[in-house]
Specification:
Chain lengths: ~625, ~180, ~150
């Protein structure tokens, strides 16, 4: 059993070597390696050659497995407080998952396949859409996130195997799950931000099946980090938390299947073949089916016996989990319905943003309202509600007032009628922020002043405050940008101008230029507010030589209150260009909110209960 | 009381098994070529062609609004000179025409002169070629790219739509089994 | 004391609102030299156009709506939509127009029929189930609480 960590180190080292070999092949333009020939090019800048390593099916799987090995190594070496047999089981489960993926790579998706008989002079180039900074870090962050849920999964399986489901497994799982969740939050936010500036249409979420494949583990992970808290502190919902831990990672695996099996149509989906899909499906049946079977047989059917009142944190966490579970089910349903109806020959349907938005908004708004109440509710039974009520009333009053003023002002600025959805979103989010702030202020009361009091609050409390406010900020961004965004598609000659939302955009120049592996046309669009020049935006149209396709690079003037967004469309002849102009209010808040959430997740792990003698001990 | 609650714990496994079966079915059908997620089923199946009024490719003064099928099944092939796959498909269409299969052409968003030259050079398997320069008939038929081929039965009802190149394999496995009267 | 702070904040915000609306009302008269590619006589029609092209799926692309796609068929369909709106087709008519030509595939908001009903029945059922579960668990844990604490 003591060999576990050492073997994990060995696995990790070998995978690092493999990864370095593949990266070296890309960086040195070794076109005898099929992957390099298909996805790289000698004219590609070196940092994109690096990202080309994981910009394809085989390479990204190698990254996946390397990250899994890294998590395994971390668990092996950072678990000093775990009993030996527990650690051995956890590492064994992680190892078995790793074996499955390695077999998949070796037998169906070998990244090192060679083109020795028919060498090529140069490669096909990386898909120009992927030649971008956001795409360099988005996959690694995403993978660190949902591969990280394998740790909680492994803990859950190990606990089920021993039959010992007391609070200990929850306590051990929490920091790992928090970190994985934080990374997944960053990964999803990066994907959204990248799509926004790179795709040229100003969209930031499309409920695309592949996007949903990353969002579902996130929803499960959010439920999990809350459920683990209840199970650790009060020993309740033991069986449900185990199931959630299995579900979160299962959804990650399901996502892997959906994206690589070829059964989905999506611009995100890897080009793959159905035989690979069958292999992954077999793997899924083994891992998910096996773990759910283990759950069904060995999960406790007997309650822990802990009691809690109606107005208790346990109840609120239960409601939180139920709402998140319903949201998760709805996303799963909408994503899988077209597939199921095709499989059963019932028709070829599409389920898109109108459906998902209509379902998701009514679920999330009540959740945000309840989040504002939750910090005031204590475990087991809340006796101090009478002191909380005045604060809630103040928070509600302030929220409604500010929301009303804000909505009125925005409607004026963007020349629209007063919008109730914007008002409700603002009201609900501001309620959450103010209510949480008031709770923090009252908790920080100290005879030596507010600052001392704030400093004395625990790190995990700060983490909760920041993460919850992050949700509010993101909700404000989502709500306001959806309601008030303005767009115009215009025909512009040199010197023409157009007004959108009080800003004047004028086409002041058009130039051609050469890039490292493309030729481009750049427009200069000067943006005026009245008579003052705010900025000159430079959208581009690029023709990539090797891949022979045309890319749009949008130009954005970012700000927390509004983004000014311009993209070049087609050349219309006679020197005229089609130009798409957007004003997107508060869209940055979406990613700011996500960053706040992730920060909260990371912060929670630095709480002193996880620190012994200055080092992190989880 | 533990028996009923134990059964409840099997629900997630049960749901997963159902899902896995759906996926398995999809994968099998993909491998057999029966399912392609990017292929749309045609909305015209079981219906006649939409009404149209177009000139023919070779005669800009002749306007046609009906197609005479002579009680035989026929193919309507949507093609254009800008469509690379259409050139690949053309040889097989010539073969089908030589074997007495009736093929009508829908020249989709193309240039009249270029199209006629193309046919003169590569052979003309079409009994008739409708010149749909703005793609209006194509839009009404649900065409979303060339080449596409619609199979009409002797009564003028659309029975099948194939997206992509029609070759011998497609003819044998998809069109012949419809059991239509081609002669 | 808190109430006074809120009152001041409210007054401040109100004045800010007044100032911003004053600033922007001056921008309401447009002398744009560029024209929109698709001109509508009525802003409501324009709104409907942008709504519809977001709601309709491009038949050919890899999961994109008509608004975001550069494919020729998407351009054609957008032009067709423009004509239909100007011909006073209603939203329902337009959706039916698209569906009868391209199938239910092109509707991102799925039509309601016996097959798709499950898309709404299941979420509704889950919400009811959720209420039931919360009620059940909370009541169960309360009961034993009361019987145990004599």
């Amino acid at each position: 059993m003591r060999l576990g960590p050492l073997l994990a180190l060995g696995q990790w080292l070998f995978l690092v070597v493999a990864f370095i070999c593949l990266s070296y092949a890309f960086l040195t333009d070794d076109f005898s390696v099929k992957l390099v020939a298909m996805h790289s090019n000698s004219a590609l800048p070196w940092y994109f050659k690096m990202s080309a390593v994981w910009g394809n099916h085989e390479g990204s799987l190698l990254l996946w497995v390397l990250i899994l090995a890294s998590w395994t190594l971390a668990v092996g070496y950072a678990s000093q407080s775990l009993p030996l047999d527990m650690r051995a089981r956890v590492l064994a489960v992680l190892g078995m998952i790793s074996i499955g993926f390695l077999m998949f790579i070796i037998f169906t998706s070998n990244p090192f396949e060679r083109l020795l008989l028919n060498p090529v002079a140069d490669g096909n180039d990386l898909n120009p859409l992927l030649q971008d900074f956001g795409l360099i870090i988005h996959p690694p962050m995403l993978y660190i996130g949902y591969v990280g849920f394998s740790v909680a999964f492994a803990f859950a399986i190990a606990a089920l195997m021993t039959g010992n489901l007391d609070a200990a497994w929850a306590r051990w799982s929490r920091p790992w799950t928090n970190v994985a969740w934080a990374f997944l939050t960053i990964g999803i936010a990066l994907g959204s931000w990248w799509a926004y500036y790179e795709l040229g249409w100003g969209g930031w979420w499309f409920w695309d099946p592949v996007e949903n494949a990353s969002f579902m583990p996130w929803l499960a992970g959010t439920a999990l980090i809350h459920s683990l808290a209840a199970t650790e502190k009060r020993g309740v919902f033991r069986s449900w938390t185990v199931l959630l831990a299995i579900l979160a990672f299962s959804l990650s695996l399901l996502g892997t299947f959906l994206v690589r099996s070829g059964i989905l149509v999506s611009v995100h989906a890897f080009a793959s073949d159905p035989t690979r899909g069958l292999f992954i499906l077999a793997f899924l049946v083994l891992v998910i089916g096996g773990s759910l079977l283990l759950y069904a047989i060995k999960a406790p059917a007997i309650r822990s016996g802990a009691k809690f009142g109606l107005l208790s944190r346990e109840t609120f966490l239960l409601i939180n989990n139920i709402l998140l579970a319903i949201a998760l089910s709805v996303v799963l349903l909408g994503t899988l319905f077209p597939l199921a109806s095709s499989a059963l020959n019932l028709g070829s349907y599409s389920v898109g943003p109108p459906y998902f938005n209509a379902m998701f908004v009514p679920l999330s708004l009540p959740m945000i309202v309840l989040m504002g109440i939750a910090p005031y509710i204590s475990w087991k039974r809340s006796n101090k509600i009478s002191t909380a009520i005045p604060k809630w009333l103040i928070a509600a009053f302030v929220a409604l007032l500010l929301a009303g003023l804000g909505t009125f002002s925005l409607s004026n600025q963007y020349q629209q009628d007063f919008n109730w959805l914007a008002f409700i979103t603002l009201a609900v989010s501001l309620w959450l922020i103010v209510s949480t702030a008031l709770h923090m202020l009252s908790k920080a009361k100290h005879q030596q002043g507010l600052i001392t009091g704030l400093k004395r609050l625990s790190v995990s409390y700060w983490a909760m405050v920041i993460a919850h406010c992050g949700i509010a900020v993101a909700a404000i961004g989502i709500g306001l940008t959806s309601v008030y965004e303005q767009q115009k598609d215009v025909r512009m000659l040199l010197g023409d101008d157009i007004s959108v939302s009080g800003y004047r955009y004028q086409l002041t120049a058009i130039n051609t230029f050469e890039g490292p592996n493309f030729s481009g046309t750049r427009g200069d669009i000067t943006v005026f507010d009245g008579d003052t020049v705010i900025t000159v935006l430079q959208p581009e149209k690029r023709f990539y030589y090797a891949a022979r396709n045309v890319m749009t690079e949008a130009a954005i003037d970012p700000s927390l209150t509004r983004d000014l967004y311009v993209a070049l469309g087609e050349e219309l002849g006679e020197g005229a260009w089609a130009v798409r102009v957007h004003v997107k209010p508060f869209v940055r808040c979406i990613w700011l909110g996500a960053l706040m959430m992730a920060f909260g997740g990371f912060l929670a792990v630095t709480d002193k209960r996880y620190r012994s003698k200055g080092a992190l001990n989880v | 009381m533990s028996k009923p609650s134990r059964i409840k714990l099997f629900i997630p496994l049960f749901v997963f098994v159902l899902l896995a079966l759906v996926f398995l079915q999809l994968e099998k059908r993909m491998i057999s070529g029966d399912y392609d997620p990017s292929m749309l089923p045609s909305a015209l199946i079981g219906k006649p062609l939409p009404a149209f009024s177009l000139t023919t490719l070779d005669n800009a003064d002749l306007v046609i609004s009906t197609i005479d099928l002579n009680n035989k099944a026929a193919l309507i092939n949507v093609w254009a000179t800008w469509c690379v796959s259409c050139r690949v498909e053309h040889a097989y269409l010539n073969t089908l025409a030589e074997n007495g299969i009736t093929i009508f052409g829908l020249n989709y968003k193309d240039d009249r002169q270029k199209a006629n030259q193309w046919l003169a050079r590569l052979g003309n398997p079409y009994q008739l070629n409708l010149f749909d320069v703005d793609g209006k008939l194509g839009l009404n038929m649900g065409v979303y790219g060339a080449p596409e081929t619609y199979v009409l039965d002797a009564n003028g009802i659309v029975r099948y739509r194939h997206v992509g190149v029609v070759d011998n394999k497609v003819w044998q496995s998809k069109i012949l089994p419809l059991g239509l009267n081609w002669q | 004391m808190m109430l006074r702070a809120y009152f001041i904040a409210a007054v401040f915000l109100l004045s800010l609102t007044g100032l911003t609306s004053a600033a922007y009302s001056s921008g309401l008269v447009n002398n744009d030299s560029a024209n929109e590619l698709k001109v509508f006589s009525d802003p409501e029609m324009r709104q409907r156009y942008y709504g519809l092209i977001a709601e309709l799926r491009c038949p050919k692309c890899q999961n994109q709506n008509l608004a975001d796609s550069d494919a020729p068929i998407a351009t054609d369909l957008r032009n067709e939509l423009y004509l239909l709106i100007n011909d006073n087709y209603s939203d329902a008519d337009i959706l039916e127009f698209m569906e009868s030509r391209y199938g239910e595939f092109v509707l991102y908001s799925p039509p309601v029929n016996s097959v798709t009903a499950v898309l709404w029945i299941i979420p509704a059922g889950l919400v009811l189930l959720g209420f039931a579960i919360v009620a059940f668990i909370v009541l169960r844990n309360q009961e034993s609480d009361e019987t145990n604490n004599v």
